[in-house]
Structure formats: structure tokens, C-alpha cells
DNA sequence: CCGAACATGTAACCTGTTACATGATTAC
DNA sequence: GTAATCATGTAACAGGTTACATGTTCGG
């Protein structure tokens, strides 16, 4: 069965999440899921996904089922151990509550100190972009068949928090 | 002056942010700033910080001033080109509006599908942790001399958004 | 049948982490 | 003087990214 991995990376967890949601997938389908995702944190680069799935297979967390087509595709799905590992990853409180890497928050402290000529145009552009993303997210929520409704709402809430913060800051 | 770097990494930008805020710093001081930061996204590992600062120096974005102590320390500060690069990094709309890597949001879509025996205890632990962090952040805000007040408020707003989302989800 | 998009990979590179090594300073 | 801590690094490693290479399927 291969030795147990002590911990999953964020990408590995995300990939296994896709497998749980969609059932057995080829690596390409996982990549596609990453790319199509509204909240795309992962580029879904082949150089990350293919090795990651093989790694998980080697660790006994996935089972591979070869497809008999000319492309020699492989359908991966969660093994029992994989399902357990995914649950453990999902319920890792310390990591779930952690901050991650937020480009907005990394930059925010310094926006107040920008040369004012630059600051105005930048803030306008930023707000415009955030609003556009918010609109796109709302669009998705409008679809009656939207999957991951909760996740999309979370995404929306986060963008709105950013917008609200910018607004509050501006007023001061 | 060295050749121009096309783009700064998040850590490089964060390091230069520290230099702008504190003035000339040794690598160790930058590391300390990362570790002390309330919103610590970076471990401030020596293996990242020392090479990063040398990289930026080589690119002409920092100036190095040797200190005449037995430790052969070096004080780094922003060059003119470095200040420009930092401004460009700060005002990179696409990146600032991007989502980054958010462990909470990566996991959130699947919490609904957890075995219910596990889900309850996990959610309680998660809420407890988030509340503890919120309290810690409020603590910082209570200090009258708190620097980066805006940034801390943003941190607080984000944690509250998470808590609110969890609460809303629970009700449904 | 031929070009475009699909699908599977690989190799070189970059950056950050952990763990270690080493010397300087401070507290006692 | 010695132990703890401060401070500066380095080496091995890990995990992603980009760019490339290659074969397959499909639309015209």
C-alpha cells in the first residue's frame, strides 16, 4: 500500500477534494476543475497535478484504474486510506483557521503611504476590479443549479469584506 | 546596478515593505518583523530572507551598508529603483485583487459532507480557534500605540467574515 | 486530410522550508 | 567562564510554475 504520508499539501488536498466531488477523474479533469473553479487558487499546471496524483497513488491514498483508450489515461479515485487522509486534512483546525497567503492583506498596510498621485488611480482601479469580481460571483449564484453554493457565498463575503474595508478606510 | 527584476515575489514585496516601514534593517530584523507580525504569512525562515535580500541587492533594488561590528552585519535599505519597484508591486491591481491561498476557503466546500460524528467536534474546535484569534486581534487593537491599525482591522474583518459564514451555514 | 484543441507527460527552474553550522553577545 | 540567546548564514529538500515535447481526437 505504500507508506503513509504524514501530511497533505494544500494542492494535494484540493485535488482529493475534486476526486471526492466528481468521483474518479483523470489528471486532466482535475486540472480542468482547478482552472474552471471560480476561486482558482491553483493554476492547475500539469507539472504539479500529474506528479501530485502519482505521489498520492504511491502513498496508497488513491487507486488508479487504467482506461483502455489510445491515450492510456488513468482514472484516479480515493482509496479508503485516501478518504481518511482527506477527512483529516479537511478537519485540520490549525491549518483551516490559518491565514494563508493573501495578496490584498499583504499590501494593504502600505497603501496609505503611496504618493497621492498614484494612490487615487490605483484605488479606483482596485475597486473597479473587486466590483467586477463580485458581479461575476453573483452571476454564478444566480444560476439555479450552482454547485458549491456555500463556497461561492464565502467567496462573495470575502470580496465584500475587502470592499467594505476600502470604503471605511477612504472615509477616514 | 544589476539588471531589473521583472516582478517581485510576495515575500520580496513583504520584505521591502518592512524596509520602508522601519528604515534600514539587517536581515535578522526583517525576519523578526515577519515573526512578530500579527498577520504572519511568512515564517521568516533564514533560508528565504537572507537569499531574498541578496537577490534584491543584486538587482539594484536595495542598497547595502556594512556595519562595523564583529558580526559583519549589513543594513539594507531601499534604493530609488527599489522604491519604484515596491510601488509597482503595491499597485499591481491584478495581484492585489487576487485570492491568494486561503486554507479556510479551500476546505470549506467539503465540510458539509463530513461524517456527522466528526463534523460536530470539528466545527466547535474551529469556531473556538477563530474566536481565540479574534480576541487576540482585538487585544492588539486595544493598545493605543498599535501600528498598522488599518491592517489589523482588516485581519479582524476577515476572521469575522469566516465566523459569520460558519454561523450562517449552521442555521441553514 | 489537416489544423485546432484535447490530453499526457517531462525538464529546468525558482522560491520557500527545515535543519544544521558557526560565531558573537549577554546573563548569571 | 559557561550556558542561553542573538545573529548570520548554508545545504538539502520539497513543491509549484513555465515551457516544452508528443501523441490523439475532432471539425471543416
Description:
- 2 copies of one chain form a homodimer.
- Chain A has 172 residues and is mostly helical.
- The first copy, chain A, has 2 domains: 5-96, Arc Repressor Mutant, subunit A (Orthogonal Bundle); 103-171.
- In chain A, 65% of the residues lie in helices and 6% in strands.
- Chain A has 8 helices and 2 strands; from the N terminus they run αααββααααα.
- Chain A has helices spanning 10-22, 27-36, 46-58, 80-90, 93-97, 103-111, 116-142, 149-171; strands at 62-66, 74-78.
- Chain A has a two-stranded antiparallel ribbon.
- In chain A, a hairpin with a 7-residue loop joins strand 1 (62-66) and strand 2 (74-78).
- Chains A and B meet through helix 1, helix 4, helix 5, helix 6 and helix 7 of A and helix 1, helix 4, helix 5, helix 6 and helix 7 of B.
- Chain A binds a DNA duplex (28 and 28 nucleotides) through helix 2 and helix 3.
List keywords for this structure.
two-stranded antiparallel sheet; 2 strands; 2 domains; mainly alpha; homodimer
Task: Please describe the topology of this protein.
The structure is a homodimer of 172-residue chains.
Chain A (H helix, E strand, L loop, with lengths): L9 H13 L4 H10 L9 H13 L3 E5 L7 E5 L1 H11 L2 H5 L5 H9 L4 H27 L6 H23 L1
Antiparallel strand pairs in A: 1-2
Helix pairs in contact in A: 1-4, 2-3, 7-8
Chain A binds a DNA duplex (28 and 28 nucleotides) through helix 2 and helix 3.
